[in-house]
Amino acid sequence: LTDNIEYNKQLVEIKKGMKEKTELLFQDGTVCETDIVVLALPVSSYQKVVFEKGLIPPLQLRGLQELRPGT
Question: Whole-prediction pTM value?
Answer without folding.
Answer: 0.76
